[in-house]
């Protein structure tokens, strides 16, 4: 096994499970989180990745900042910038 250092400082996981409520909403949310990270100059520090169920079914779409064990649920379309801002503050990230 090889290992290498991951480039991003923080990873946000977005549930995009296709057969749950998160599917399409999660995919759109992931795009909005990426746009917000870019707009805030944090694209290199924050990586937004799709994932499967985060055990928040019925409250989706859901986003997990696993490094801080923060789970955002019922995320609306206007929440992406706020999540990126809070994530940066929590982890001390600078643009
Ligand atoms: S299907 Fe998205 S949290 Fe379970």
Which parts are unreliable, with pLDDT below 50 for 5 consecutive residues or more?
none
CATH superfamily: Glutaredoxin
> What characteristic shape results from the CA principal axes?
globular
Give me the strand/helix succession: EHEEEH
Helical run tally: 2
**Average residue-wise pLDDT:** 94
Please sum up the structure shown.
This protein is an alpha+beta fold and about 100 residues long. The chain has helices at about 25-40, 80-90, and strands at about 10-15, 45-50, 65, 70. Strand 1 (about 10-15), helix 1 and strand 2 (about 45-50) form a beta-alpha-beta unit.
Characterise the protein shown here.
It is a single chain. The chain has 95 residues and is an alpha+beta fold. The protein has a single domain (10-90), classed as Glutaredoxin. Helices cover 31% and strands 19% of the residues. The chain has 2 helices and 4 strands, in the order βαβββα. It has helices at 23-39, 80-91; strands at 10-15, 46-51, 63-65, 70-72. A 4-stranded mixed beta sheet has the order 2-1-3-4. FE2/S2 (inorganic) cluster binds at residues 15, 17, 20, 22, 53-54, 56-57, 60, 62.
Topology diagram in text:
Elements: E1 10-15, H1 23-39, E2 46-51, E3 63-65, E4 70-72, H2 80-91
Parallel strand pairs: 1-2
Antiparallel strand pairs: 1-3, 3-4
The structure holds FE2/S2 (inorganic) cluster.
